[in-house]
Amino acid sequence: MKVQFSGRSLLGMTIGSVLLAGCVSSAALVPSPRQQQTAHGEAGAVTVPIGPPVRPSTAPPPPRGTLDPGFRRSPPGLDDRIASLWRAFPGKTGIAIQRIDGEWALAQRGGDLFPQQSVSKLWVALTVLDAVDAGRISLDQMVRIGPEDLTLFHQPLAARVRAEGTVTMSVRDLIETAITHSDNTANDSLLRTVGGPKAVRAFIADKGLGAIRFGPGERLLQSATAGLSWQQSYSVGRNFQAARSALPAATRRTAMDNYLADPIDGASPAAIASALTRLARGTLLSPASTEYLLGVMSRTRSGPKRLKAGLPDGWQFLHKTGTGQDLNGMTAGYNDIGIATAPDGTRYAIVVMMGNTTASIPARMALMQAVSGAVAEFHGR
After folding, report:
1. Which of 18, 139, 244, 247 has its CA 20 to 30 A from that of 227?
2. In what order do the strands lie in the sheet with 316-323?
3. What is the CB-side half-sphere exposure of residue 159 using CA atoms within 13 A?
4. Could you give the domains of the chain?
5. How far apart are CA 308 and CA 306, in angstroms?
6. Mean pLDDT score of the chain
């Protein structure tokens, strides 16, 4: 099934009433039965599903004379389609597409910085796995998580910590939980284990990933975006939301405007597409770590109606979503980034980032589906 949306139909969709509460990637959406196969265990425990391996391609490009037409240039019409979708959508939006096993890339507002939100969990996982490759960390290393380590918004681990007092998890299980469940506490625990934000920024710089920033961690990022100073009591229940609601409207607006003007966790769609391409090609991590991380990303549960839903049957998709806080119907960061694989094995990095938009949730998802659907439609032309 090929999904096509015109800019007119995107703008004509009714405004939904769904409100986002921070870095919770489509948690309100109900996945299909197949997507519900990964489940929570007792007392809020997160199970670690075992999926089929996703192997990076290490084969060299085919001889020059056997290259398909889409290897060196984007399919005719794809750039125009993406540009049309981009122009029609309200708010600041960035789109980037790169053929992983080819030589072309295209983008709209591809060099601008957009809030990443939970997309940044990918850089934490990469940094940790780079440390694993260097022998500084083991996937089986155990990490203690106590009440003092809890964050805010989406953190399924919090129920276990509150019930048991402390929880100990392996680095392997924390990566799985942080990526597939977008658990903020799991991610911050990994961040603490690998050396904090400085370690992630060093990885990004050492690998030459370009215009990708990394923020101060979930607690400081979200509290600053709301106009608050972090207090550990905000990690309990809805204390953060209550404190945020008690702020003067002008304080919240100023904090949000400052964040959007210069996002501390900002990244450009083009840089992310390039990083995904390098990950898929196996040039960022060891072969074992590359295969492992691609496999984890293939089990991501968030955002089933974002980019993934625009791809026809037979295509595979592995990804990471990100969703920011909402203020008066405007969301600061609504993203999906991933790697799409066609039935013939051709791979594309696809990035859609919404820096701020008041479009309804269905309209945002429709744009993403239109972008991935266009990649599939023009594939092979």
Report:
1. 18
2. 105-108, 92-99, 347-356, 334-341, 316-323
3. 11
4. 18-33+69-378 (3.40.710.10)
5. 6
6. 86
